[in-house]
Amino acid sequence: MFEHRGDSPGLYVPLQPSSGTTTRTVDLRILPDGRVGLAAYTSLPSLVQNCGNGQPWGLVDERGLAEIRASADIDVVLLDAPLPLLDRRINSDSKTPDTFMTDPLR
């Protein structure tokens, strides 16, 4: 179970950029110690601040998070963790990140 912080009904998770298909893949991180991490953010502003404004994202609830963890070999969930500057996806043309899902707060 995860604790909700903020007004979001779930967690924002970074997705890999689209490869021209409708299927999207969660963006996993290999940590320096070899563990596999899933970054998750409690708000869209936190995702943008920590991943960049060009980071595609999806919104998952507790069940969705459990499904992601069951389908991948994830060792740790990184909550509101900043990505290294070189890993951030910056889109200089827009301040709004691409999304696979509709932001429920709009």
Indicate the proportion of strand residues: 15-25%
Taking Cα atoms only, what radius of gyration do you get, to the nearest Å?
Answer: 13 Å
Characterize the main sheet. 3 strands, mixed
Distance between the termini: 26 Å
Helix content: 10-25%
Please identify the structural class as seen in this structure: alpha+beta
Mean pLDDT: 81
Name the poorly predicted regions. Answer: 100-106
- DSSP, total strands: 5
Number of separate helices: 2
Overall spatial form: globular
Q: Strand order within the widest sheet? A: 2-3-5
Order of helices and strands: EEEHEHE
Summarize the structure in short.
Helices cover 17% and strands 19% of the residues. It has helices spanning 44-51, 62-71; strands at residues 11-14, 28-30, 36-40, 57-60, 76-79. The strands form two sheets. It has a three-stranded mixed beta sheet with strand order 2-3-5, with no helix packed on it. It has a two-stranded antiparallel sheet with strand order 1-4.
